């Protein structure tokens, strides 16, 4: 029905897609399954392991600080995706909905969200260093680069702001 598409925003649909990705592929159950069944020595296994980048967990033998940092990374990926989708002006300036600028804005927002979430949470982990922060930002950017196209597709056709 036209009523549902009429009120779809690019920011909202991209944020929901990011939330679903983080909840499903960052879950402890998915991570356990992919760790026991796939190796990162193949492209498929590497990608399936990459999907688990924004991992969240409730219990672990790691320190409480590291567990909270991982949970914060998963939350920040979703929150920063929403923020960057709202702030990226490329698709807001596009004349037509569903253009490639919306796709690339959504994809870019997820790359930035992954990189900044990794950078911020690396500083919360126990024994933080500048090198570990750079590595975490690189891992987050790689995650956004290879998974962000899903967010880009989710933002296609959404409205960007208020309409008259």
Task: Please tell me about this protein's structure.
There is one protein chain. This protein is mainly alpha-helical and 164 residues long. The chain has one domain. Helix content is 68%, strand content 0%. It has seven helices and no strands. The protein has helices at residues 2-6, 10-25, 28-37, 43-50, 64-87, 100-122, 130-155. The longest helix has 26 residues, at 130-155. It is globular. The mean pLDDT is 84.
In short:
Keywords: Membrane, Transmembrane, Transmembrane helix. This protein is mainly alpha-helical and 164 residues long.
Determine the number of helices (DSSP H or I, runs of at least 4 residues): 7
Note the gap between the termini: 21 Å
Rg, nearest Å: 17 Å
- β content, as a range? under 5%
> Averaging pLDDT over every residue, what do you get?
84
Inertia-based shape:
globular
- Strand runs, count: 0
Order of helices and strands: HHHHHHH
The share of residues in helices is 55-70%
Write the layout of secondary structure elements.
Elements: H1 2-6, H2 10-25, H3 28-37, H4 43-50, H5 64-87, H6 100-122, H7 130-155
